[in-house]
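Journal club side-thread
Mid-discussion, someone asked how the predicted structure for our own chain would compare to the paper's figures. Pasting it here so we can look after the session.
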Amino acid sequence: MIARLATAARLLLAVSFLLNGVNWWWKLMPFPTLGDAPSPHNPAFVQAMINTRFLFDGVKLVEVLAGAALATNLYVPLALAVAFPVSVGVWAVDLGLLGSSLRAQVMGWSVMLLNSFLLLAYFENYALLFKMRSAPGRYWQAGR
């Protein structure tokens, strides 16, 4: 049951990341994109991120790469770990700056909850990261 739920969540998050990431370069949805003129409706912080391009280009690239990895079921634990800071950022911006919008509330919470659920579903892959004391792997100890 959890495996099916995790697969559905993985694919849903993949579609969300791919659509939102690709939308930055090619307008597919009515969200701010690279080619849009500055909008008085955007919060100042969001408009500053759009104007500088650097942050949004990086975030959108992570969304596209993570979405592709999740959609193809390749490197899923890595994609989830790399995408989590993006999910936190999406959640914070959607909740804090765009909180009056129902779309922002739904998008912010859904991305955060899906990514968090998947990190827990794949926790076994991260277990060694929480080991208090460790040594270099066997590869390095073999003198290669």
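Post-session note: The CA atoms of residues 91 and 109 lie 6 Å apart.
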